[in-house]
Design a protein that fits this description.
It is built from three helices and seven strands; from the N terminus they run βαββαβαβββ. β6 and β7 form a beta hairpin. 20% of the residues are buried. The mean pLDDT is 90.
């Protein structure tokens, strides 16, 4: 009998250039962080269901991975927030863009049945905002 534990998905981690700017962005999307976290080298938020989202500064990563450099070019991670309703997508988008964050895709009614938009976080990661167009059970982020 194998007594080795099966790995369990537990954390989504982002390396950030500016912790304060990143936390401000994700706070606008409902994540909660301890007061004073803006100057910490590592910060976590526990999401509904127990999954965690972690943020590490570039300096923190370099402290244990000396040759690490931030990637260049487009993002390779997908982060999506269910905004409840099409109006919630529009309001979240307007709030983020109004706070100075860059739009990648303004809200539109997608052919797969969602109101959908993409805003870039302070490090250029695309963050999808979505909600079903019709009154239906919440679905996952668009593929």
């Amino acid at each position: 009998m194998n007594s080795t534990p099966v790995p369990r998905f537990d954390v989504v981690g982002l390396v950030v250039t500016d912790m304060a700017a990143s936390l401000a962005f994700y706070r606008r999307l409902g994540l909660e962080f301890a007061e004073g976290s803006e100057s910490a080298p590592h910060v976590e938020a526990t999401l509904p269901g127990g999954l965690r989202m972690a943020f590490d500064t570039e300096e923190t990563v370099r402290s244990f991975h000396e040759g690490w450099h931030p990637p260049s070019g487009g993002g390779r991670i997908g982060i999506a927030f269910h905004c409840g309703t099409p109006e919630g997508v529009d309001a979240s988008y307007e709030g983020l863009v109004g706070a100075g964050h860059k739009s990648e895709l303004p809200p539109f009614d997608a052919p797969w049945g969602q109101r959908y938009a993409v805003v870039l976080d302070p490090d250029g990661n695309g963050v999808d905002l979505f909600a079903p167009l019709a009154a239906a059970e919440p679905s996952g982020a668009a593929e």
